[in-house]
Each structure stands twice: as structure tokens, then as C-alpha cells.
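Example 9 (inverse folding). The structure is encoded as follows.
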């Protein structure tokens, strides 16, 4: 999934912004997100990744408790992304909450969107249907076909090109191994059925490669 000259659906964004109860059409926030995801230094966490997440959401919208909040969280979840920084999700959540409340979205709704973004830190198994769905969507790449998964791994390595190979190998094996040690990588039944088995195969193969 090379950095692509893909556009984001502006009409989709404005309709979402209106459903959230925001004032105006959120043009400046949309432009900010396009610029962030379109940054050429992003090899994986780019417009292609966001479009993939929205596609996965469209397939599973019916299981969301608050679908508009889930979609908003996906738009913002990698708005701030600096490889290696531990506060990317915190800053993305803060950006989302500020943007939403400044445009008139009820504070409780803005806080729920921010909480969903924080769940994508993947530090623990998410709680709540919507948080689980956001996380499953973000991790759906793990259950892709082997060739697509391998391309994902290559692009993540490019984003961390500054990390020496021995350190990267051990760190990446630890991250991927952490998902393997979970009783289930995915929490939403459709994602478990669709991706769990292939994700485990991909992760086992990747961990073996990184630990050779």
C-alpha cells in the first residue's frame, strides 16, 4: 500500500460532520486531515490506510452502537502520527475532541470519540462494542492475504527506517507476539470469523522471521 495520490470523500465527511451535530461543514478540519494523512513521509499510515478503515467500517456499520462516533474516530485516529512517539493517539484524540467541541458537537459525544481513538493504542483488549469495532478495523490488515500482509510489514519498516535492524527486529517481534498471546486478536464476531485465523498465520510467520 504505497503512498497513493488518493482523495478522501469530502461529501462523506460533510454528511458525517452534520450528523454529529457540528456547525458548518468542517472544511478546515477536512483539509487538515487530508494534509496529515497525505504527508509523503507516511508509508503505511496514510490516506490508503484511512480509506481501508472506512471501507471496513462500511461493511460492519450495523454492529456499532454509535456508528457516527465510530466513523469520526476512524477519520481522526492517525491524524497525528510520528513513528516511535508514544503520544500519537493521545494527540489525535485531543485534536478530535477540540475540533468537535469547537464546531458545536455536544461535549459528551466528543469525549466518546476521543476515547475510541485512545483505544487504538492497543495496549489492552478494548472494552465496549464501539471501541472493539474501532480496534478491529484498525487491525484488520493483520488478517489480510499473505502478500498484502508482507507489504504492510515492509511499509511499517520504512516508517521506522531510522531504527537499527537488530533493535527493530526484537521490538517488532515483541509487538506482533503480543497480539498472538491474546485469546483472540479480534473482538467483534464478524472480524473474528473473517480475519482471526489468517491473522494468526501471518503473525506467527512474521514473528518467526523477525526472531531468526
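The amino acid assigned to each position is listed next.
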Amino acid at each position: 500500500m504505497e503512498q497513493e495520490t488518493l482523495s478522501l470523500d469530502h461529501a462523506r465527511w460533510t454528511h458525517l460532520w452534520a450528523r454529529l451535530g457540528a456547525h458548518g461543514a468542517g472544511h478546515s478540519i477536512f483539509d487538515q486531515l487530508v494534509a496529515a494523512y497525505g504527508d509523503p513521509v507516511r508509508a503505511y499510515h496514510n490516506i490508503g490506510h484511512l480509506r481501508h478503515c472506512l471501507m471496513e467500517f462500511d461493511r460492519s456499520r450495523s454492529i456499532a452502537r454509535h456508528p457516527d462516533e465510530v466513523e469520526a474516530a476512524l477519520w481522526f485516529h492517525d491524524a497525528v502520527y510520528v513513528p516511535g512517539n508514544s503520544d500519537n493517539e493521545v494527540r489525535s484524540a485531543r485534536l478530535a475532541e477540540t475540533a468537535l467541541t469547537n464546531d458545536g458537537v455536544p461535549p459528551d459525544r466528543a469525549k466518546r470519540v476521543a476515547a475510541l481513538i485512545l483505544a487504538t493504542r492497543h495496549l489492552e483488549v478494548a472494552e465496549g462494542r464501539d471501541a472493539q469495532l474501532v480496534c478491529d478495523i484498525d487491525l484488520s490488515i493483520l488478517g489480510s492475504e499473505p502478500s498484502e500482509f508482507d507489504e504492510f510489514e515492509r511499509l511499517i519498516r520504512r516508517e521506522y527506517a531510522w531504527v537499527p535492524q537488530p533493535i527493530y527486529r526484537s521490538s517488532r517481534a515483541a509487538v506482533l507476539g503480543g497480539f498472538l498471546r491474546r485469546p483472540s486478536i479480534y473482538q467483534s464476531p464478524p472480524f473474528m470469523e473473517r480475519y482471526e485465523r489468517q491473522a494468526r498465520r501471518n503473525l506467527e510467520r512474521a514473528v518467526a522471521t523477525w526472531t531468526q
